[in-house]
Amino acid sequence: MKWTTGLLAGLGLVLSACAQEQGHGENAQARAFVDYMVAEHNFNRDELVALMQEAKRKDSILKAIKRPAEKAKPWKEYREIFITNARISGGVDFWDKNADALKAAEEKYGVPPELIVAIIGVETRYGGNMGSYRVLDALTTLAFDYPRRSKFFTKELENYLLMTRDQNIDPTSLKGSYAGAMGFGQFMPSSYRHYAVDFNGDGRVDIWTDTEDAIGSVANYFVEHGWKAGEPVTVITQPLPNADMTIVNDDLQPKWTIGELAAKGFPTTAKVTKDMPANVFSLDTRDGEQFWIGLNNFYTITRYNHSRLYAMAVYELGQEIIKARGGRS
């Protein structure tokens, strides 16, 4: 079933089987969305009306998005979720199986293989868990039944329907996270449309089954969000007794420079230059508080997920995968 005039017939079969579930056909916001998509993007009204009826409100999605955010966990607990033997060995295996594509991505985009592998490892355990919710259900539920973020998810639903039409994909077929993120790297529909690439040149942009496209897409996302090839990600620091602790964890964006941080009592012996943009953050480890300097590339990782804990998990997982591979390229 694709975006064709045959969509209605296919949806009719699904509707009869799922009549007991609540669709969005009578939802006022959904009806307004249909009007918009017809006027703005020339969608077929009857097909969209049927699709909104087929799109199910899922209470489990609403419960999931209301759960406490990951930032509530201290680093010592957060780290244990992602830096595990299984995820490290899985990263080694994924790297070995996709070594050519990872090397090609590094050559084209300047993003190291270990970080691409770690992103995919953190997001989906190397494709092992790409999500079990229909993307259509996730996006319509959050667009029309979650007022707090309705604007964002309505835009993502718009991008999703444009994406599936452009790629000739059945919009009821794709599965993803409770928030509608998709594929190996868990791209939202807008990210897919802006950053996903046909890295192997087969004429399709497939981040669901094609690891080459998934790898190239993650690398392209990094570059489009400011990745600087050859620069470090983060370096450790030991605050001096007179350090200005008010700037610790002050912002995800690097608002200082290495030189300014040194003057404020946060030196580093790493190979960095004084004019590099930087900030300083702390982590609550099993051995006590640890202080790090986040550089431009660390900030780029947080553009994937706006959390310094997430970025540190990606960085450390990548470093552990390198160690486990024994330095093999």
Brief sketch in words of this structure:
This protein has helices at residues 7-17, 28-41, 45-54, 59-65, 75-82, 85-97, 99-109, 113-124, 135-144, 150-166, 189-195, 211-224, 258-263, 296-302, 308-325, and strands at residues 133-134, 175-176, 234-237, 256-257, 277-285, 288-295. The protein has 329 residues and is of the alpha+beta class. The strands form 2 sheets. It has a 4-stranded antiparallel β-sheet. A two-stranded antiparallel sheet has the order 1-2.
Name the descriptors.
329 residues, two-stranded antiparallel ribbon
Major sheet attributes:
4 strands, antiparallel
Strand tally: 6
Q: Order of strands side by side in the largest beta sheet?
A: 3-6-5-4
Which residues form runs of ≥5 with pLDDT under 50? 16-20
Helix content: 40-55%
Q: So how many helices?
A: 15
Distance between the termini: 43 Å
* SSE arrangement, N to C: HHHHHHHHEHHEHHEEHEEHH
Radius of gyration: 22 Å
Give me the secondary-structure category: alpha+beta
Overall shape: globular
Mean pLDDT: 93
Q: What fraction of the residues are assigned to beta strands by DSSP? A: 5-15%
Task: Describe the overall structure.
- The protein has 15 helices and six strands.
- The chain is an alpha+beta fold and 329 residues long.
- A four-stranded antiparallel β-sheet has the order 3-6-5-4. A two-stranded antiparallel ribbon has the order 1-2.
- Helix 9 runs antiparallel to helix 10 and helix 10 crosses helix 11.
- Residues 16-20 have low confidence and may be disordered.
